[in-house]
Design goal:
Elements (H helix, E strand, L loop, with lengths): L14 E4 L3 H12 L4 E4 L13 E2 L1 H9 L3 H6 L3 E3 L1 E5 L5 E5 H4 L5 E3 L2 H14 L3 E3 L2 E9 L2 E9 L2 E6 L2 E4 L6 H5 L3 E3 L5 E9 L7 E7 L2 E7 L4 E9 H5 L5 H10 L2 H7 L3 E9 L4 E3 L3 E2 L2 E3 L5 E2 L7 H22 L4 H29 L2 H13 L1 H11 L11 H8 L2
Parallel strand pairs: 1-2, 1-12, 2-8, 5-15, 12-21
Antiparallel strand pairs: 3-7, 4-7, 5-6, 9-10, 10-11, 13-19, 14-17, 14-18, 15-16, 16-17, 19-22, 20-21
Bound molecules: flavin-adenine dinucleotide.
The site of flavin-adenine dinucleotide has 40 residues, from helix 1, strand 3, strand 9, strand 14 and helix 10.
């Protein structure tokens, strides 16, 4: 039997979740399944687009299955992605083959419009009250404790209260900012631009990443013959571009002959969407009366394709801790410390790998050196595939032995 803490007389719910992306919908559903009264607010209306490469890495794909969504994901036409092919600036390429690293492992390509709507439907089915067109503008704090939010709901200003406020509101999280937790990343200031294409050639079993001196491109096969095309480059260059965004995007892709070849004759369908600068972190992911999950808790760069998987993982880490805190009637910073510790254990090593990968991306010579070695050293490539797919411990790619096997002449 679920021992549910009744909300106080002035509370609108036990938990207010700000944001209905993968992190927010999943955590809201998991809390509702544990018997809690959850209110989810999102400023948009679903289905909605999200600037993303629409790729869910193998661990994220497994987590979607563990959430009971494998059938629905297949019914939506998700494209199976068995590997990622990574191209270095001078042209050498290697395959990070998930299936070769562990039989049955695969990623998927599925538009976020479909994936996020599915996750939100799951939250509604679990009993979450979802209010769309609900834009959270501020966080209410009383005696050092977060007690609710101020939102514009369908154009009307409302004050909403709950013992726990979850910031699942993505990269530009108002919850993180209002609490003074957001820290810009000064080292990595990149903007990601994405668009959908129809008619790209030669992409089926795997997606591709192409690294160039001025950025990188990603190609991901999706449902219904669509391809997600991403171009990631310096945020300042995007902000000061002389012409249109489309001109900048297309010129960036044209610099990479292997990408241009894949897109020859393909047609862009829909607008170019962008986010930038993307990288940021937060001072802490939980405190008195609040916690942050998904991109709101920090994001580095999309190259390693971790975002959706980490959003799901973060929700799974938060749910039992938040539920226990609500049941005990204690959502103090101390009660939520285990969530911060769990996040460190789950994400720290992979974050170091992501930084290591950035080192290669930012140094074309190093990338050109490593790519042919990875192509001719299947054991090393398998370990890297497992780490990139988040189904092998990230520590394996940080070990001196692995790096020596990768970098020896
Ligand atoms: C260019 C680019 C490419 C990427 N490619 C990939 C990829 O291929 N694979 C991958 O795994 N990850 C990728 N990512 C990262 C991935 O998109 C994120 O990690 C993921 O979306 C995080 O999910 P989330 O639920 O935390 O936030 P989001 O998906 O951003 O959802 C946040 C939600 O909060 C709502 N919201 C925001 N502010 C408010 C507010 N004030 N009030 C109410 N609601 C609000 C928004 O409407 C939105 O629905 C990419 C990111 C970028 C920028």
């Amino acid at each position: 039997m679920v021992n549910r803490m009744p909300p106080g007389p002035t509370d609108d719910a036990e938990a207010i979740v700000v944001g209905g992306g993968p992190a927010g919908s999943t955590l809201a559903a998991l809390l509702a399944e544990r018997g809690h009264r959850v209110l989810l607010l999102d400023k948009t209306a679903f289905p909605r687009h999200k600037a993303c490469s629409d790729y869910v890495n193998p661990e994220g794909t497994r987590l979607l299955g563990a959430l009971g969504l494998a059938g629905e994901i297949a019914a939506l036409g998700a494209h199976a992605v068995a590997a990622m092919q990574v191209h270095a600036p001078a042209g050498a390429a290697f395959l990070a083959d998930f299936h070769a690293a562990e039989a049955g492992r695969r990623a998927i390509g599925l538009t976020r419009r479909k994936l996020d709507a599915l996750l939100l439907e799951r939250a509604v089915a679990a009993g979450v009250e979802v209010r769309q067109h609900s834009h959270v503008r501020d966080v209410r704090v009383e005696r050092g404790r977060v007690v609710g939010v101020a939102a514009t709901v369908d154009g009307v200003r409302e004050e909403l209260r709950a013992p726990l406020v979850v910031g699942a509101d993505g990269r530009a999280s108002i919850v993180s900012r209002a609490l003074g937790l957001d820290i810009e990343n000064r080292l990595l200031r990149r903007t990601g631009l994405v668009a959908h294409y129809r008619g790209a050639r030669g992409l089926d079993a795997w997606g591709e990443m192409h690294v160039h001196a001025h950025g990188y491109a990603g190609l991901a096969p999706l449902e219904e013959g669509l391809t997600n095309v991403a171009f990631v480059s310096d945020a300042a260059a995007v902000a000061t571009k002389p012409g249109s965004l489309a001109d900048y995007f297309e010129a960036g892709l044209a610099q990479m002959p292997a990408v241009a070849e894949k897109l020859a004759g393909a047609e862009r369908v829909g607008p170019i969407r962008g986010v930038g600068p993307m990288a940021h972190r937060t001072r802490r992911a939980a405190g008195s009366g609040y916690l942050l999950v998904g991109d709101a808790a920090g994001f580095l760069d999309p190259f390693t394709g971790d975002g959706v998987a980490d959003a799901l993982r973060g929700a799974l880490l938060a749910a039992p801790i938040a539920s226990a805190a609500l049941r005990a009637g204690d959502v103090s910073a101390a009660a939520l410390v285990p969530y911060r510790a769990a996040r460190r254990r789950a994400f720290w090593a992979k974050r170091q790998v992501a930084w290591l990968v950035q080192g290669f991306i930012l140094s074309p010579v190093l990338m050109d050196y490593a790519a042919p070695r990875l192509a001719s050293r299947p054991g090393v490539a398998r370990t890297l595939a497992g780490v990139l797919g988040s189904f092998e411990p990230a520590q394996r790619a940080l070990s001196p032995l692995f790096l020596a096997r990768l970098l020896r002449p």
